[in-house]
Amino acid sequence: MNDQIWDVVIVGGGMAGGLMAAALLDSGLRVQLLDAAPPPQPPTGLIRPRVSALTEASVRMLRRLGVEPLLAADRMLPYQSMQVWDGDGTGQVDFHARDAGAEALGWMVENDAVVAALYQRVAPQLPWRVATSVVDLQRHALGWQITLADGETLVTRLLVGADGAHSSVRDRLGIAGTPRPSGHWAVVGTIATELPHGACARQRFIDSGPLALLPMGGADAPCSIVWSTSEADAKRLAALPEAAFNQALTLASEGVLGALSIQGPRGCFPIIERHASSYVGRHAALIGDAAHVVHPLAGQGINLGMLDAAVLAEELLRAHARGLPLSSPATLARYERRRRGHNLLMQQSFHGLKWLFEQPALPLRLLRNLGLRGVQQAPPLKQFFVQQALGRRGDLPALARA
Ligand SMILES: Cc1cc2nc3c(=O)[nH]c(=O)nc-3n(C[C@H](O)[C@H](O)[C@H](O)COP(=O)(O)OP(=O)(O)OC[C@H]3O[C@@H](n4cnc5c(N)ncnc54)[C@H](O)[C@@H]3O)c2cc1C
Questions:
Q1: pLDDT interval class at 364 (50, 70, 90)
Q2: 16 lines ligand 1 (CB under 6 A)
Q3: CA-to-CA separations, 38 to 115, 154, 265, 276, 301, in angstroms, rounded
Q4: Which residues pair with 121 in a beta bridge?
Q5: Is residue 13 in contact with ligand 1, taking CB distance under 6 Å?
Q6: Burial 249-258 (b: 16+ CB within 10 A, else e)
Q7: What would the pLDDT profile of 315-338 be if each residue is shown by its tens digit?
Q8: What angle do helix axes 329-358 and 301-321 make, rounded to 10 degrees?
Q9: How far does residue 164's CA lie from ligand 1's centre (Å)?
C-alpha cells in the first residue's frame, strides 16, 4: 500500500507541469506526473501552430535543469530585436538585445518541442505517466486520493494542478476560474515570407487587434503568426481561400516582410482570459494556465507559468529541507504570495494595452502614438520594457536569477 503514497502528484505534463517535475528531480521527494496525452515526440517538418516566445528567465531555467540541450537547435530561435508599431499612426518602438546587454531578447520555440525535451529529461528519473486521465479526487487523511481512468487509485500529500486552462483539478477543488472573453479570436499558422525575418519579432497593433509575426528557426526560417481580431473577422479570415488569405495577411502586415503565404493549416479559436480565485487549496496548488490565462499579445503566458512552477518547487524544497510538511498552509501561502499579485498585475497590464489600442477616440489614438514614440525616445523607459520582456523583474526563483 505504501508504494501508492506520493509526496507530490503533478496533473498535467505541459510546459508548466514538466518544468515543475524537472525542478524536483534529485529532491528526494516521491514525485509522479500524470498526463492525458500520448508520449510527447519532438516535432519534425513544418513548424507546429502552437509556439511561444520564451524569456531569458525561462531559458535560464531550462538550461539549469539540463533541458535546453535536448531541444533541437533548429526548433529554437533566439531573436535579437523586436519591432512594435501602431497600424493607424506613426508610433513605433524598436527593442534590441544589445540595449540590455542580453544574449537575445527572447527565444521562439514550438510548445511541443519544449514538452518533448522536458519529457526526455524527466521520464528516465521519475514516473511521467502518459495517456492517463484523472477522473476523480477525494479528500484523504494524508492529502488527496486520485482515481485514474483505468480505476487505479493513488494518494498524494500534495496535488499540483498543471492541467491547463480548462483545468479539471481546479474545478474539482472548487476553485473558481471563471472565463472572461477577451473580445478577440486568434488566427494562427506558419507562413513563408518573401523577405528574411532577420530574427526580429514584429507586432503591428491594428484597431481590430494585434498581428504578430514571430521569427522561427530551421532551414526555411518561416514565421509563425498570431492574428488577434474579432470573432466574425477571425472566422472570415480562417475560411478565406489561400490566395485571398495571403493577400489579406500581406496587407495587414503592411508588407514589412514582403509577400506572405500560409503553409499548412490555419487555427482559429477564441482568446479567453481567466484568473483562479485562489492558487492553493488544502494540500493542493495550481500552476500555469490552470491558475491564469492571459492575452497572448505580450507573449508572457507560459513564462509566468514556468515561474509559478519554479517558485512552487523552491518553496517545497525549502519546507522539505527544514523538515516541515510539504503542503502546510504556510508553505502554500508563500507560493501564492510570491506569484498571484505579479501574475494579476501582468494580466491587467496586457488588458490595458489591448484596450488602449482599441479606442477609436482621437485623443487616445494620439496618446498611444505619443506613448510609442515616447518609449522609443526615452532610454530609461525602453530599458524598463526590455527588462520586463526578458523576465528580469519580480520575485524570481533562484533557478531563474542571473
Ligand atoms: C495563440 C497563443 C499564443 C501564445 N503565445 C505565447 C508566447 O509567445 N509566450 C508565452 O509565454 N505564452 C504564450 N501563450 C500561452 C501559452 O501557450 C500557455 O500559457 C501554455 O501553453 C500553458 O502551459 P501549461 O503547461 O500551463 O498548460 P497546457 O499546455 O495546456 O498543458 C496542460 C496539460 O495537462 C494535460 N491534462 C489536461 N487535463 C488532464 C487530466 N484530466 N488528466 C491528466 N492530464 C491532463 C494536457 O494533456 C496537457 O498536456 C500563447 C497562447 C496562445 C493561445
A1: low
A2: yes
A3: 12, 21, 22, 27, 23
A4: none
A5: yes
A6: bbebbeebbe
A7: 999 999 999 999 999 999 999 999
A8: 170
A9: 5
User: What distance in angstroms lies between residue 163's CA and the mean position of ligand 1's atoms?
Assistant: 8
Q: Are 176 and 162 in contact (CB under 8 A)?
A: no
Distance (Å, rounded) from C-alpha 142 to C-alpha 45?
A: 47
Q: How far apart are CA 159 and CA 208, in angstroms?
A: 41
Count of Cβ atoms closer than 10 Å to residue 332 Cβ: 24
- Is the CB–ligand 1 distance for residue 272 below 6 Å? no
For the record, the C-alpha cell of 262 comes out as 500560409
Tell me the pLDDT of the chain averaged across its residues: 91
C-beta 36 within 6 A of ligand 1: yes
CA 392 – CA 381 distance, rounded (Å)? 15
Domains of the chain and any CATH numbers? 2-179+274-400 (3.50.50.60), 182-273 (3.30.9.10)
Global pTM reads 0.94
Rounded-to-integer distance, Cα 212 and Cα 343, Å: 22
- Among protein residues, the one with the nearest Cα to ligand 1's atom 21 is 302
Do 20 and 30 touch, CB atoms closer than 8 A? no
Distance 154 CA to ligand 1 centre (A): 25
> In 3-state terms, what secondary structure has residue 279?
coil
Cβ(120) – ligand 1 distance below 6 Å? no
Ligand 1 mean position to 396 CA, how many Å? Answer: 21
List, as one string, the DSSP characters of 343-371. Answer: HHHHHHHHHHHHHHHH--SHHHHHHHHHH
Condensed to tens digits (0 to 9), the pLDDT of residues 52-109 reads: 999 999 999 999 999 999 998 889 999 999 998 887 766 788 889 988 889 999 999 9
Dist. CA 35 → ligand 1 center (Å): 12
For helices 56-64 and 301-321, what crossing angle results, to 10°? 40
- Give the C-alpha distances (Å, rounded to integers) separating 39 from 44, 72, 150, 222, 254: 15, 17, 18, 27, 41
Pocket lining: 147 vs ligand 1, CB cutoff 6 Å: no
